[in-house]
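Let's practice the habit of predicting before peeking. Look at the sequence and jot down your guess about where helices and strands might fall. Then scroll down.
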Amino acid sequence: VQLQASGGGSVQAGGSLQLSCRTSGVNSRITAVSWHHQAPGKERELVARIAGDGMATYGDSVMGRFSISRDYARNTVRLQMNSLKPEDTGVYYCHTTRAGTEFWGRGTQVTVSS
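Done guessing? Here is the structure:
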């Protein structure tokens, strides 16, 4: 299983970014993928999760601002981040599991300036 995250960068508050996580070695139709945010000096927390059937759930801090989707043809999960805030700064990781084992992507940095 491999997870390749991309799309991070630097934006001003109120701006938008889109992250992508390309998966390999998992069946996209039955495997959930999630994005997690780790702010500097803090623990990693769940941002959004999308199930194999496309059902999405979100953390309270991003509800209404972020949207997660998946492209089955490209084995890619995307995280559209709008109305970004300085507190969204940090490293974003994509995550999945297979047969009880957790897999993490390398992480992509997002920096939001005020």
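How did you do? The mean pLDDT is 96.
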